[in-house]
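Section 5: illustrative case.
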C-alpha cells in the first residue's frame, strides 16, 4: 500500500564500501533490494579498486597500507625512469649503433655482468639473509640507495671504455644485492600488511600496481629517451632529479610502515620510554622514531642465541650466570668489549627472547643513563648504578645477578602493557641465532 512503511527483513554488506537491505513491500508478496552507498553496477572507481587493491580493502590490510603504497608507487615510477637511462647507456657501451662492435663482444659483456651478479646474489643471501626480517625498513632503504648507485655506475660506464666491463660487473653485483634485499624485505612488509591470511592476494595486487606504474614510466620514457640520447648533460640532470625523488619517496614509504613486532631498535625505544614514563607506547608512537640509517655509535651490542662459550669461561662464570636466575636464558656482559651475549634454553619461546632483550636493554640503560631520571624501579636502579661504579670485574657478575630480581619485578608489567598497547609478543624480530642449551634451573638440580 502507498505510504505504508516497508518492513526490513535482513541486511548485508560487502566489506566497508557497500551496504544492502532486503525489504518486504506493503502487500507482503514481493521481496526487493534497497541499497545504500555505491550502486551495484561497477563504476570506474570500483573497477580500479577490485583490480589493484586486495579483496576486502581496507579491512583486509594494515592501517598503513595506503600511505605506504602511495609512496611506493612514486618511487617505482622514478626508478623506472632512471632504469631506462641506465639501459640506454649500457646498450651504447656494448656497441649498439657502432658498426665496429661485434655480437661476440657484446654477448661476453652481458654474460660477465649477469654471472658476477648471480655470484653476488648467492653470497649476500648467505651473509645477510637471516638479518633481513629483523630490520626490514633499513634493508629496504639500503636496497633502493644501492640500486641508485648501480644505475649511476651504468650511466657513466660508457665514458670509461677501458674499464667498461669492470664497471658493469660491479653494477651487476650491486643490483643482485638489491634484488635479494629488496625482494626479501618486500615479502616481510607484505606479511605485515596482510591481516586476513591473504598474503598472496596482497602480493599479487602489489605486483599489479608496480606493473601499472612501470607501464606509465615506460610511456614517459618514450618521450624522454629521444631527448636524452646524445645529451650527456640532460641525462645526468634527469638522473639527479629522479634519484632524489626516488630516495625521498622510499624514505617516506618506510616511515609510513607501522610494524607491531619487536626488533632490537623498537625494543630499545620501548624500554627507554617505559623506564622514563612508566608506560609502554603503542606501535604508532615507536615506529616513527625507529632509526633507518646505520648507527655509528651503538652503546652495547646485543646478541641473542649465542653459544655458551661466549658467556662462560670457567665454572665460576657458570655459577654467577645462574645466580638468582630461574629464566630460560643465561646472560653475560663484558664491559670492555661492550657486548651482551644471551644463551637461550632449549624450548625458549618468543616471550623469553623478549625478556632476554629487555634484560640486555636494562643493563644498557644502567650503564649509560642516570637512573635518577627513571620513573620505574628508580630506587633499585640507583643502587645498581652505585654498585656498577665500585665493581672491578669486567664481566659485572654482581650487577648481572642483581638485575635478575629487577627483571622479575618489571618484565611482567612491561609485557602486559605491551600487549594492551597493540604489540605482538607471540613472535619477534630480535634476530636470535639458533644455538640452544640445557642447564638445570637453580634449586632444581635434578631437572
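Designed sequence:
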Amino acid at each position: 500500500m502507498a505510504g505504508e512503511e516497508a518492513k526490513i527483513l535482513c541486511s548485508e554488506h560487502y566489506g566497508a564500501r557497500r551496504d544492502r537491505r532486503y525489504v518486504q513491500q506493503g502487500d507482503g508478496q514481493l521481496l526487493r533490494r534497497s541499497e545504500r552507498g555505491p550502486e551495484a553496477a561497477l563504476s570506474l572507481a570500483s573497477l580500479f579498486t577490485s583490480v589493484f587493491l586486495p579483496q576486502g580493502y581496507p579491512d583486509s590490510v594494515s592501517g598503513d597500507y595506503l600511505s605506504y603504497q602511495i609512496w611506493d608507487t612514486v618511487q617505482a615510477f622514478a626508478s623506472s625512469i632512471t632504469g631506462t637511462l641506465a639501459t640506454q647507456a649500457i646498450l651504447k657501451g656494448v656497441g649498439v649503433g657502432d658498426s665496429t662492435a661485434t655480437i661476440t663482444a657484446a654477448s661476453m659483456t652481458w654474460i660477465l655482468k649477469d654471472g658476477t651478479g648471480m655470484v653476488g646474489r648467492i653470497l649476500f643471501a648467505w651473509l645477510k639473509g637471516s638479518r633481513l626480517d629483523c630490520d626490514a625498513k633499513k634493508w629496504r632503504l639500503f636496497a633502493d640507495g644501492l640500486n641508485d648507485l648501480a644505475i649511476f655506475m651504468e650511466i657513466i660506464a660508457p665514458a670509461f671504455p677501458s674499464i667498461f666491463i669492470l664497471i658493469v660487473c660491479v653494477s651487476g653485483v650491486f643490483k643482485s644485492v638489491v634484488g635479494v634485499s629488496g625482494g626479501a624485505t618486500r615479502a616481510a612488509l607484505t606479511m605485515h600488511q596482510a591481516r586476513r591470511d591473504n598474503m598472496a592476494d596482497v602480493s599479487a595486487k602489489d605486483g599489479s600496481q608496480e606493473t601499472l606504474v612501470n607501464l606509465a614510466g615506460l610511456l614517459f620514457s618514450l618521450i624522454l629517451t629521444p631527448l636524452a640520447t646524445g645529451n650527456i648533460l640532460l641525462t645526468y640532470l634527469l638522473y639527479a632529479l629522479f634519484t632524489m625523488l626516488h630516495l625521498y619517496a622510499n624514505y617516506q614509504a618506510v616511515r609510513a610502515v607501522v610494524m607491531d613486532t619487536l626488533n632490537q631498535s623498537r625494543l630499545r625505544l620501548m624500554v627507554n620510554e617505559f623506564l622514563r614514563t612508566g608506560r609502554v607506547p603503542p606501535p604508532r608512537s615507536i615506529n616513527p622514531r625507529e632509526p633507518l640509517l646505520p648507527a655509528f655509535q651503538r652503546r652495547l651490542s646485543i646478541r641473542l642465541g649465542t653459544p655458551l662459550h661466549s658467556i662462560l669461561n670457567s665454572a665460576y662464570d657458570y655459577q654467577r650466570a645462574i645466580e638468582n636466575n630461574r629464566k630460560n636464558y643465561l646472560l653475560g656482559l663484558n664491559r670492555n668489549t661492550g657486548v651482551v651475549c644471551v644463551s637461550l634454553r632449549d624450548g625458549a619461546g618468543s616471550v623469553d627472547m623478549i625478556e632476554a632483550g629487555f634484560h640486555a636493554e636494562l643493563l644498557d640503560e644502567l650503564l649509560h643513563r642516570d637512573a635518577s631520571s627513571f620513573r620505574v624501579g628508580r630506587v633499585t636502579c640507583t643502587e645498581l648504578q652505585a654498585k656498577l661504579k665500585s665493581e672491578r670485574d669486567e664481566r659485572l657478575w654482581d650487577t648481572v645477578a642483581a638485575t635478575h630480581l629487577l627483571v622479575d619485578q618489571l618484565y611482567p608489567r612491561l609485557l602486559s602493557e605491551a600487549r594492551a598497547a597493540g604489540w605482538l609478543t607471540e613472535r619477534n624480530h630480535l634476530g636470535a641465532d639458533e644455538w640452544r642449551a640445557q642447564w638445570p634451573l637453580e634449586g632444581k638440580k635434578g631437572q
